[in-house]
Amino acid sequence: MTARIVLLHLAVLLLLFALQFIASDYVILTLTRIMVLAVYASGYNLLFGYSGLLSLGHAMFFATGLYAAAIGTTRAGLSVPEAFLAATLIGVVVSSIMGVIVLRARGVGFMIVTLMFSQAAFLTVLYFGDYTRGDEGIVILDTIRIFSFLGRTIDLTDPLLRYNLALALLAILVALILVLVRSRFGHVLVAIRENEDRTAMLGYDVARYKFIAFVISGTLSAVSGATYALMFAYAGSTLASIQYSIHPLLWTLLGGASTTLGPMLGTGVMFLLVDFASGFTNVSLLITGAVLIALVLFFPKGILGSIRQRYLKWLP
Amino acid sequence: MSFLPHLLLAVLEGTVAAAVLALSALGLSLVFGVMRVVNVAHGEFFMLGAMLAWWTAKMMPGGPFAGFIAAFIVAPAAVGALAFLTERLLLRRINYDPEATIVATIGLLFVIQQMALTFFGADAKPVAAPFSYRIVFPWFGYSGYKLFVVVASGAVLLGVWWVLSRTRFGLIMRVTQFDRETATAFGIPVNTVYSVVFVAGAALVAVAAVLIVPIQQAHYLMGLDPLLMSFIVVIIGGLGSIKGSVIAAFMIGMTDGVISVFFSPTLASIISTLAVAFVLVVRPQGLFGAETR
Fold it and tell me: Smallest CA–CA separation between B216 and chain A, in Å?
C-alpha cells in the first residue's frame, strides 16, 4: 500500500478530529450523524461500488441494527455495549440469510428483490407495533445511555464524547475498507463487477465472494444502525422505509462509487444540500430526486470518481 | 356471518384484488418485456393518474359519471405526455442502461411525489364511483362497481393481448423485444417503438388508476403499493411475460383477498413477499419466464 494513500486517509481523520475544537454544537451534532451514516454508506459501497451489486434494500440491515439495539436496551435489559454486540451478531445472521435468498437473482432482478424484502421488513416493523412502536418509535432513556464500561463511566448524552466515538468507529471502518479493497479479495470483487462470467471461468468461486461481500456490507449497515439508535436514542419506522434504502445509494453515487472516501464525502455533501435547501422550504424529497437524476445524466462517476479520472489516478 | 359467506366475500375481494393487480402490473410488464428496463416511477404514474381522476371529477360538471369519462381521456393523456418526456430526456440519454434507468426513475419517483404533495396536498381524496349499484347477497351487499372493475380490467388485458399478437404493430414490438439489433437492421425504427411502448405503459397504468381510484382514495403516497405489488407479480410471473403476470396476479390477488379478510392486510403483504422469495429459490427466472439471453 503506498504511503500517500495511507497519509490521505490519516489526514482526513485528523481533520475530523481537529474540527471538534472549532466547530459549533450544531456542527458537532451534524458531523456525528454524518460519520455514523458514512459507515452505512461505506458498507453499501463495498457491495455496490466494488462488487457491482446494486441493492435497493439496505434499510433492512440498517433497521436490523437499529431495532436490535433499541429493543435490546429497552426491553431485554442489555447494557449499551452488550446491545451493540448483539446487534452486530444479529446483523451477520440476517444478512447471511438474506444473502442466500437474494443473491440467486441477478441484475435487475436483484434490485427488485432487495427492494421488496426491505419493504417486507418495513411492514414487519409496523406489524409488530407492540414491540417497535411503529411510527412513533422507541426512545432510549438517558439512564440507559450513561453506563460504566471497563471501570469507566461513559455518558452517551455528551456530544463531544459521541463525536469521538463516532470518529473512532469511522477510523476502524476506513482501515477495514482500505485493507479489504486493496487485498486479493477486493480485486476479485472488482473482477466480478466487471465480468462475472469470466471471473467464474477463471476458477473463482463467484457465489462465495458475492456472499461474503454481501454479509460484510449488511453487517456494516447493521453496525451503523445500532450506533445510530444508541447515540441518538431513537429507533422509528421511518428509518426502515424505502427512502433509507435509497440514501446510501445516493450518497455513494454522489461521492463516487468504488472510492474509499466517496461515500463519506457524499453523505456530507448531501446533508449540506438538504440543510441549505430546507432553509427555504421543506423539499428534501425533491432535492434527493433531482440530485439522483442529475448524477445519472451528467455525473455518473460522482465527485471523487471524476477527480480520480481527471487528476489523481492513484486515488483508492 | 358464518364461514361460507366469509369465504364468498374473500373470493370476491380476491378477484377484485387480482384484477387490480393485473391491470396495474400490465404497463410495467409491457415496458420491461420490450425495453428490458424497469420503471420504478411506475407507481407514481399510477398515483398521478388517480390524482388527475380526482381533479377532473372535481372540475367536471354533470356528476360522477361525466367526470369518470373525462378522466379516461385526461389522465392517460397527461401521464402519457409525462412518460414521453421521461423517455426522451432521461431514458434515451442514458441509452436504456438497466441500472442507470432504475436509479434515474427512483429520482423521478421522489420528484413526482414531492410535486404531487405541493400541488394536491397531503390529504386523501375520495373519488365517487360513476354508478352506485349494490349487488345484494343474503348476507351482505357488494359494490357493483368493484365487479365492473374486474370486467373492465379483463377487457383491457384482452385488448393488449390482441394488439400484441394480432396486429402489425404488435409484431414489430415482439421483434424489437426479441432482437433489437436485427430489428434495426431490418429498418424498424427501434427508438420510436421504445417511445410508443413507454408511453403506452404509462397510459395503461393511468387507465388502471382511473378505474381503481373509486375503490381506494387518491393520495400522494399511494404509488408505492401498486409498484411493489407489480414487482411481485412480474417476478413471480417471470419478467417480461404478460401471460405469466396475469396468472401470477390471480394467484397473489386470491391469496391476498383471503388473508386480508380472515387475518390482516399487512400479513397478506408480508406473505406475498415471502412467496417471491420461495419462487426465486425454486425458479429464479419466474414461473413462466424464459432464461434471459
Answer: 20
- State how far the alpha carbon of A140 is from the alpha carbons of A84, A150, A230, B46, in Å: 13, 22, 7, 39
User: Do A112 and B38 count as a contact with CB atoms less than 8 A apart?
Assistant: yes
Q: How far apart are CA A209 and CA A134, in angstroms?
A: 36
Paired residues of B125 in beta bridges: B218
> Distance from B271 to chain A by nearest Cα, in Å?
9
pLDDT at residue B240, rounded to an integer:
65
CA distances from A87 to A39, A63, A162, A269 (A): 15, 10, 19, 29
CA A292 to chain centre: 18
| CA atoms of B31 and A254, how far apart (whole Å) | 28
Q: Which region holds residue A148: left if phi is over 0, alpha if psi is between -120 and 50, else beta?
A: beta
Distance of residue B285 Cα from the nearest chain A Cα, in angstroms: 8
Q: Which residues of B touch A127 (CB under 8 A)?
A: 264, 266-267, 270
Residue B230's contacts (CB-CB under 8 Å, 6 or more residues apart) are B21, B24, B25, B28, B29, B42, B43
Question: What is the band of B293 on the pLDDT scale with cuts at 50, 70, 90?
Answer: very low
**pLDDT tens by residue, B231-252:** 888 878 776 677 788 888 888 8
Cα(B27)–Cα(B197) distance, integer angstroms: 9
What H or E segment, with its residue span, contains residue A155? strand A152-155
Q: Please determine, for residue A118, whether its predicted confidence score (pLDDT) is greater than 60.
A: yes
Q: What is the pLDDT of residues B249-274, one digit of tens each?
A: 888 888 877 887 777 777 877 787 77
Query: Which residue in the set B93, B94, B110 is minimally distant from A286, CB to CB?
Result: B110
CA B164 to chain centre: 17
Chain A residues close to B36, C-beta within 8 Å: 108
| Long-range CB contact pairs, A92-95, < 8 A, 24+ | A92/A215, A92/A218, A92/A219, A92/A222, A94/A60, A94/A61, A94/A64, A94/A218, A94/A222, A95/A61, A95/A64, A95/A214, A95/A215, A95/A217, A95/A218, A95/A219, A95/A221, A95/A222
* Band of residue B48 on the pLDDT scale cut at 50, 70, 90: very high
- Model pTM? 0.84
Distance CA B100, CA B106 (A): 10
- Does the pLDDT of residue A225 top 60, yes or no? yes
